[in-house]
Amino acid sequence: MSTTGTPPSSAVPQRAGTLVSNDGPVSDHGLTAAAEALAVEIRIREAPLAGLPPRAARSTEEQRLAAGIHRACRGLRASFLRAHAAAVYDRLTDGRTVRLGLTALAEAAAEAFPGLVPTRAQLAAELRHVQAEKEGREIDQGIFFREILRLPEAGGHLVDVLRDPTPQARALLPDFRATGRAELGKVTVERRGDAGHVTFHNESCLNAEDNELIAQLDIAVDLVLLDDSIRVGVLRGGPVPHPRYQGRRIFSAGINLAELHHGRISFTGFLLQRELGYISKMYRGLSTEGRPDTFPAHGVEKPWVAAVDTFAIGGGAQLLLVMDQVIAAADSYLSLPAAQEGIVPGAANFRLGRLTGARTARQLVLGGRKIWAGEPAARLLVDEVVDPKAMDRAVDEAVARLAAPAVLANRRMLRLSEEPVDAFRSYMAEFALAQAERLYGEDVLDKVGRFTAGGTVR
Questions:
Q1: Cβ distance 281 to 222 under 8 Å?
Q2: Are the beta carbons of 173 and 226 closer than 8 angstroms?
């Protein structure tokens, strides 16, 4: 049964008998007792927070008090998960038979293990504040997902679950197969010959990524992978109305810093989901586990082409690292300014050095180097540089090459040698906590606040 993205009922499944913990078998009673003890301790330690004013109105002493409370509680959560993460995941997923997405899994954990992760109500309360004024409860989610993803079996299962097709894509698939087009809001999917064209249309912010765009890209990638008539996926940004780029296509401006400032970038729905969801699907294809019989037995994985117009910044540049062919307009550039923004650039730190070598990777990630399509270094990241007017033709030619029968088998073999899934899982475990903590770094909060005050996205 696949229930990705759908929370379980209020009664979380509990298997009788013995569960597997990180240190070996643990009785169901033992896990319950440890969880109850954690809940009591967290409730006692967090009680003083209720008497404090909102974060923005706290005195220096009150800020120190709150920080100490959170630090102590996070230590308790980490210790509990180090001992019981496998048993926790087993209980939440009924022995890995229920397939829960990130948000659904976190909600189930909040209900089954009080105090372990923030509740839906606590997260809703956080959304009433800008990023700088939140309590930082997403860090607790980072601790939770770090410990789950560290485990080869539980973490491997979660990585696989997150490549399940979305329920929305399943619902849209019959109509898409019939019409060859789906309008998702900020994303359009169109079948043209052998290609499935996925186009960003987040024009108001230079095709920057936000929660809505990430969710729609998950659906769009699913449709391309599930449609039997499509052999190659194409990713491209649409034209924007911005005065500086009037009518020009833009690939992506990366994360929407204004949305981050206002506290509207979801940790689970955006920062983890984009890496473990649609990007992972583009690179590895859809999961073959829990797949209904109505899905095609072939075509789960397909090659992808990226067409870079104007620029690919941040998250846009990260996408290029999983593409089979990258075509860039001669006047375009790419950059990964995450270190300047204070955050971790997704899985770029994991993948970039494989393509560029360690020195160039450090220049891009740590130094914010911008690489123009015409530079020699761009050849490490871009396959073809063409006149902007020739982009359409170059994309069509790339699709024709990648639609060849032997491409898919060779793509699979290349991927298996380049990036074992366990290595990716281990990286994402560390990323989960590092990125959650970075969201609340003073440098990040200062940067996004100043950027938003300037009235720009990037």
A1: yes
A2: yes
Residues 385, 282, 322, 241, CA torsion sign: positive
Does position 306 have pLDDT exceeding 80, yes or no?
yes
Which tokens sit at 134? 């939140």
Tokens (6 digits) for 389: 């007017």
The answer to whether 386 and 329 have CB atoms below 8 angstroms apart is yes
| Residue 441: both structure tokens together | 């770094």
> What pLDDT, on the 0 to 100 scale, is given for residue 454?
53
- Tell me, letter by letter, the H, E, C secondary structure of 438-453: HCCCHHHHHHHHHHHH
Residue 339: predicted pLDDT: 78
- Helix (H) or strand (E) holding 341, with range, is helix 338-341
Q: How far apart are CA 456 and CA 206, in angstroms?
A: 10
Dist. CA 61–CA 272, nearest whole Å:
34
**Which pTM value belongs to this model?**
0.91
Instruction: Give 71's strand partners.
Output: none
Ramachandran sector of residue 166 (left: φ over 0; alpha: ψ -120 to 50; beta: rest) = beta
pLDDT tens for 313-358 read 999 999 999 999 999 999 999 999 987 888 999 999 999 999 999 9
Query: Of 95, 90, 147, 93, which is closest to residue 116 (Cα–Cα)?
Result: 147
What is the Cα gyration radius of the chain? 22
Q: Which pLDDT score, from 0 to 100, does residue 443 have? A: 87
Bridge partners of residue 249, in order along the sequence: 239
Side chain identity at residue 378, one-letter code: A
Whole-number percent of the chain with pLDDT over 90? 85
CA–CA dist 187, 168 (Å, integer): 14
The helix/strand/coil state of 97 is: coil
Return the number of other C-beta atoms located less than 10 Å from residue 121's C-beta: 9
- Mean per-residue pLDDT, 404-420: 94
Residue 453: pLDDT band (50, 70, 90) is low
Using DSSP's 3-state secondary structure scheme, residue 197 falls into: strand
- Tokens representing 189 are 């999917």
